[in-house]
Amino acid sequence: MDVSVLDKLRTVVGPTNMLTGIELGPYVVEGRTPEAAVFPSSLDEVRAVVEIAADAAVPIVPWGGGTAAAVGTPASRAGVVLGTSRLAQLVEHEPGDLTATVEAGMTMAALQSMLRARGQWLSLDPPAADRATLGGVIAANASGPRRHLYGTARDLLIGVTAVTGEGVVVRGGGKVVKNVAGYDLPKLFVGSYGTLGVIVSVTVKLRPLPDVERLVAVTFDRLKDGGAAVRTVMGSDLIPNALDLVDAEVGRALGLAVAPGGCALIAGFDGVSEQVDWQCAEIGRLTAPLGGHGVHALAAQTWTRLAAAAREVFDPPAAVMRLSVLPAAAAEAMEHGANAARQRGLGSAWSCHAGAGVITAALAARGAQAEPGPIASVLGEWRALARASGGHATLDWAPLAVKSVVSVWDDAGAAGRIMQRLKGALDPRNIMNPGRFVAGI
Fold this sequence. Notes:
With 441 residues, the protein is α+β, with helices and mostly antiparallel strands. The chain is 31% helix and 23% strand. Helix 8 (223-234) runs antiparallel to helix 12 (330-343). The protein is globular.
């Protein structure tokens, strides 16, 4: 990068808010080191940074907490990390309207703490809430087990302010829930992985804190019995806010006594105390005829571990893949996927947001099986399995040697062409995370 570009960036954010050289260690992703990292503190500074980079054709990597930095295809060229850590203010909170406007760099944990003091919360529970920023959570469409009842970022986002790849400030949505005017621009930025622009602030819907919340588990000797229990619970009068199915590996990591080949159905309930008590008892009654071994209360901290439970079974995993399938096919897909890994001498761990059919699968490999070939073969089978189950698969994490032979993203089909056109409209110079996302955008 030309020295004059670095000087311009330094002038915008100030010398103490720009990193170069060995200071860039925390921002190295898959062996690729950016040429600088800058930390603007306002919308105007973000716009100025983007304009400078665009004029010099320098790529920009938006960076929140870095929790999803390794997701996607590696960048083909070094650029500038644009960190949002100095954009971390609660701009406006309207408790009566159940809305809040928040700068994108505030961590989820800090936001929830502020809202909790006023009896409210944002019903998103992504992994690593102490590091994950609100802007990053929206850009990665990250969520956790409570998505079963409360949905994902798409369901909670009502307004966004962002800077596109041309340095243009765009504002979409509004500050009230009943806002139906114009195109729903905010939804474009959900799950865009920083390829359309830099999210600067967002307005989100909130909910009152429940009186009581409880997490319980029912164990089964067979995975197929757990799948039957999921269908029974979803067809019942129960209203769980979380409904996860985990295999024996994950169950044991969470402190449950799960037999080999078995599973655990983990359910969360919230509301008034009497309602929660009844639901916890009712799930035991419903699952007992299906082979359920009673209802086990889980510690409160299990909530924070559940979203990333499969990945954390192995330290480190050989690869992590996310499969989206029809909910009715989730248990069968988990069983077939584990068999595919086992046949090649590899270990695996599986967890699933069962009501949504979103499965996280982690692969463990040792010795000769740790070579890219066997790992890639299993991942290919997993992707084929997802497609056969009515869905698709994304490679959430893997070494570069594996990514070189297994595509990170599934084929987007006709949607990919639409996404390329949107990318061209909002980032015509292709400087925002170029090549990271689906269809090469």
